[in-house]
Amino acid sequence: MANKKRNEFLTAFSHYMTDHLEDECPRSWKECPPSFWEELIFAYLPHTMKVVPKKNYTEQFLLQLRKFVRWLDKRNDTTFLEVVVSYISEATQTLKKYESLFSELFLKNYPGLHLPDRDCMKEIECLDKRMEEFDETTYGVFEVTKVNDDGIVLLDLHSHYSYFTKSISHEKAELEMIITGCFGKKKYAFLWDLAFIDGIYPKRA
Questions:
Q1: How far is C-alpha 173 from the geometric centre of its chain's CA atoms?
Q2: Considering the entire predicted model, what is its pTM?
Q3: What is the DSSP-derived secondary structure letter of residue 150?
Q4: Cβ burial 18-42 (10 Å sphere, 16+ → b, else e)
Q5: DSSP 168
Q6: For the sheet containing 178-185, what is the strand order?
Q7: Are 42 and 87 in contact (CB under 8 A)?
Q8: Quick one: pLDDT at residue 95?
C-alpha cells in the first residue's frame, strides 16, 4: 500500500512538472524557487483533487510530498524541506476542509462513484437532464464574497457578475474561497443552483 501511495504521488508530481508547468518548469532541482512548491500545494493539488472514500487525498498527497522533499534534499544537497513544511502547515487544514466539501458536492452528481456496479451512463444521463431544467447556465471561476444564513454570494472573476445560491452550505463556505464549476437558474427564479463542480481552491491559488 505504501508503494502504491508513493507511486500515485510521483505520477501526479510528474504531471505537475510536465503538463501543468510545461515550459516554465525549472531545468534542475537547484533552480526550483519557493513558488514552485507553493503552486504545487495551493493550486495544483486542489486542481487535481481525487474523490476518495476516506476523503484523505490531501493528507496522503502532503505526506508523500514531505517524504519526497526530505529524500530530495539528501540526494541533491538542497534545502527545500523547511519551506515545503511551512507551506504544508499553512495549507493542510484549509485544503482538507475544501476536499471534504468538494467530495460532498461532486458525489451529488456522481453518487455511485465508489460502487463496484456503478452505472456511469446513468449518472451522465441524470446530469444531462438536470442541465436541461435550467433556462440559464454560467460556467466560470467564482469567488465567495458574502456568506450568511440565507446563502452565499459568488463573484464571477471574469465577468464580475454576482450570483446568489443556496446550493453550497453557508456553514462550509468561506470568504475568498474560489469555486470552479457551472451554475444554472430556472426561468423567473432568483437563486442559482450548482449544476456541477470542478474544483475548490484557496484564494492563494
A1: 14
A2: 0.91
A3: T
A4: eebeeeeeeeeeeebeeebbbbbbb
A5: S
A6: 162-165, 151-156, 136-148, 178-185, 193-201
A7: yes
A8: 97
Question: In terms of Cα–Cα distance, which of 106, 110, 97 is closest to 173?
Answer: 97
Strand blocks (E) in the chain: 136-148, 151-156, 162-165, 178-185, 193-201
Residue pair 65/41 in contact by the 8 Å Cβ criterion: yes
HSE-up (13 A, CA, CB side) for residue 24: 8
Cell readout for 38 is 507553493
pLDDT of residue 1: 59
* Grid cell for residue 47: 486542481
- State the amino acid at position 57 in one-letter form: Y
By CB neighbour count within 10 A (0-12 exposed, 13-18 middle, 19+ buried), where does 182 fall? middle
Name every residue whose Cβ is closer than 8 Å to that of residue 66 and which is 6 or more positions away in sequence. Answer: 81, 84, 85, 88
Residues with Cβ < 8 Å from 113, sequence gap 6 or more?
51, 106, 107
> Rounded distance, CA 169 to CA 127, Å?
21
Cell of 30: 537547484
* The Cα angle at residue 110 between residues 171 and 63, in degrees rounded to 5: 65
Grid-cell match 508530481, residue found: 13
Strand, coil or helix: what is 174? Answer: coil
CA distance 125 to 136: 19
Residue identified by cell 467564482 is: 142
Stretches where the chain sits below pLDDT 70 are 1-2
State which amino acid sits at residue 19: D
